[in-house]
Specification:
This is Lipoprotein. Keywords: Signal. By secondary structure, this protein is of the alpha/beta class. The chain has a single domain, classed as 3-Layer(aba) Sandwich (Rossmann fold), CATH 3.40.50.10610. It is built from five helices and seven strands. The strands form two sheets. A four-stranded mixed beta sheet has the order 2-5-6-7. A three-stranded mixed beta sheet has the order 1-4-3. A hairpin with a 5-residue loop joins strand 5 and strand 6. Helix 2 packs parallel to helix 4. The radius of gyration is 19 Å and the shape is elongated. The termini are far apart.
Length: 182
């Protein structure tokens, strides 16, 4: 009977544990990215839609679903990140003829031995419907982890926004992007 109770308790705990859903933190603009945008002196820019690749798996950390705080979409998360950085640099305008949009191609968190966040996205800059820039950027941000999920899961969630900051740093560093947004 003792063994049966232990088995039932284990199954109940596992079920409760699997049902946990976490959310990534709200994005906070990176000061280095805002400074870089100001250096580029781009035109006023609007942020378009960032779609998500069909079949892109839902983001999870050690079996726990990880949702976006922006319309439950990581495409919307990336758009919001760009929007916040442009706004902080004083360069956001929804009425601009210059638009940055994109497509999220890869979005993954690994939190075991080689812990990292990998994000890949296509960025497209259009000026009055004419494509001026179309390029794919990829970042893989490693981070320290732990075997224990109680430590590893929050760390992985915490690192996500920094991977997005790194992705935008890569975008702003591209001379072709700089030329397209002038």
């Amino acid at each position: 009977m003792h063994r049966f109770s232990y088995t039932i308790a284990s199954v109940m705990l596992a079920t409760l544990n699997v049902a946990c859903t976490y959310s990534t933190p709200n994005y906070v603009a990176a000061e280095k990215n805002v400074a870089r945008l100001k250096e580029l002196s781009p035109s006023q820019t609007k942020v378009g839609t960032f779609s998500v690749r069909d079949g892109l798996p839902e983001l999870s950390v050690r079996g726990h679903a990880l949702t976006s705080p922006y319309a439950n979409s990581y495409g919307a998360y990336l758009a919001e990140a760009l929007r916040q950085e442009l706004a902080a640099a004083g360069l956001l305008s929804d009425k601009s003829g210059l638009e940055v949009s994109g497509h999220l191609l890869k979005n993954d968190i690994t939190s075991f031995t080689d812990a990292s966040v990998t994000v890949e996205a296509r960025f497209v800059v259009r000026r009055d419907e004419t494509v001026k820039y179309d390029s794919v950027k990829l970042v893989k941000r490693p981070f320290p982890t732990a075997l224990e999920g109680g430590t590893a899961i929050p760390r992985a969630i915490y690192e996500y926004q920094f991977a997005i900051q790194d992705l935008l740093t890569e975008l702003y560093a591209d001379p072709d992007f700089a030329a397209a947004v002038k």
